[in-house]
Amino acid sequence: MKIQIYDNYEHMSLAAAKLLEAQIRLKPNAVLGLATGSTPIGLYQELGRLYREENLDFSELTTINLDEYVGLGPDHPGSYRYFMDQQLFSQVNIDYDSTYVPNGLADDPEEEMADYEALCDYLPRDLQVLGIGHDGHIAFCEPDDSFATYCHVAELLDSTIAANKRFFRSKEEVPARALSMGIKQILNAKKILMLVNGEAKTAALKAMVTGPVTPKVPASILQLHPDVLVLCDEAAAKEL
Ligand code: F6R
Known about the structure:
By secondary structure, the protein is an alpha/beta fold.
């Protein structure tokens, strides 16, 4: 695991965008694994600028997102499909049919995730972007007694619901279940780019990097991946 510390969120985001830019220019038909949440917003904004002002071409890319809420469709402002459409896909010339997000409205969520597992096998990712939850979760793989190996339907912990309520009108509106990629597919990505910012993530970052590998801190499994780059800001890194 390599770690690079930046003085603030903006510089971290610009550095992340440079890496994605290099990946896209070197391999225009790359497969990228993408995350939602507050953390990658600066990265996606910069990718939009690179498209508009520096001819970065997204037309051959394929993207696969980590997760989605059960019960929320593309038109719901809290859904991750909506987030991706707003923050990135509508800002660049990506082929919408080559962007994959689990279907929150699937009749059978278990079957949806079995299909998603097969899709991930079929489209191995060149690079996976990740964020980390305060409790050390990645995607919606929550702290537990064992790792959530496969693409699955996750029951969200109260702490995750509380952390994500800022994207909804109230805590009650946050779905209690989500569709999530599992640890196996996350580790299948050739390269992993983990972004961590802000003081609220200090403990999670420390546990991920220096703690034991344990399902109680799902992100700690990244210690076993051969090519992980962590970009963080000084606030998050203050206990490293
Ligand atoms: C989102 C995801 C989550 C977030 C994590 C951090 O697709 O997979 O694991 O990366 O909850 O979220 P933020 O960035 O909002 O702090």
